């Protein structure tokens, strides 16, 4: 699952390096012993779960690349980890969801509200109430003791940390923290790619111009990554083996006949639906940035 290029972002992001987005200035202190999750709203029977009861459920382990909608082209608000948790699909089946519902409004211990399309929690993508990250209990900053993880959706519509309440509802009847601030209600992650090496303005010897990075297209999967030098032809790069469609793929390419001078490398990815990233630049608001990432470097 890895390519052999120095300084490419590691396949699994260590917990301590995983990006963070918190609206709260102080991380909420939620002891596992007193944690409870209430599941209610448009359901046949409400349910309240303790942490011990959650752990008694069937747990699944999945590698999932989480991405923030605020990530700029080439940005760092993306990370890949192994998560363990209880499938939300099973929990929602148990409480019995009203067919008229189309959303779940989740609330955190710090009163963050997030609306998620119900379908993403009940289809087979593996949405979960996560309790572990890379083999450790969820770190405090990443939502201890329990957070939501939903492959394929930007964090602001899915990844509620310190989650304590799930209300099955309808989008028409709710508003949530970010959607009140002009961000999109439904936000599938866009296909994206990034150059990690060389770093901007790095100088490389002509016989060792190794280019590398990551590309992601959660739920669809990355099929192809191409790079070009300056305004030259596109070159297909080497991709690391597929883990699953919900994780990023590392890629690498060697520029064989590198010429001395200052150059720019540009990357673009194509996902398994055949869609190639557009060069049109869009800002993150309201539903995620678009555009190709470029890095300038010098060959000696
Ligand atoms: N309670 C709470 N949950 C939250 C947030 C938050 O600020 N508070 N930020 C969301 C956003 S915008 C993202 S991208 C992810 C980030 O998760 P991380 O901080 O573990 O990387 O969590 C989401 N869940
Ligand atoms: Mo985010």
From TrEMBL:
Pfam families: Oxidored_molyb. Gene3D superfamilies: 2.60.40.650, Oxidoreductase, molybdopterin-binding domain (3.90.420.10). Residues 291-300 have a biased composition (Polar residues). Residues 26-172 form the Oxidoreductase molybdopterin-binding domain. GO terms for molecular function: heme binding; molybdopterin cofactor binding; sulfite oxidase activity. InterPro entries: Ig_E-set, OxRdtase_Mopterin-bd_dom, OxRdtase_Mopterin-bd_sf. Residues 270-300 are annotated as: Disordered. GO terms for biological process: sulfur compound metabolic process. This is Molybdopterin-dependent oxidoreductase. It comes from Solicola gregarius.
